[in-house]
Sequence to fold (102 residues):
Amino acid sequence: MVKKYLKLTLKIRGAYMYPRIKNVVPTDDYKLILTFTNDEVKVFDVTPYLNKGFFKQLKDKSYFKSVKAFMDSIQWKNGQDFCPDVLYLDSKNKESTTNSFG
Fold:
């Protein structure tokens, strides 16, 4: 139990850091193609968030496509963003989603 607590504490304090965002490309189906600092390319699906509070604005496709890489993560002009760790952990490798992108 102590090991588990210590591992969680170290993770919270930043001892474990996942790669950060270098580039983002939005798609027509509310996905983000993300390039991380370790050169991995992954796909993050934003659709589960589109009906939640501040993220509702992202339903507007032109607004959704205005996303930019910002301070090691991503951000839209009205401040919507995602934690870079969430983006890394919850996205899928682009190779496994190739059929979705042709």
The longest strand covers residues 21-26. The longest helix spans residues 2-12.
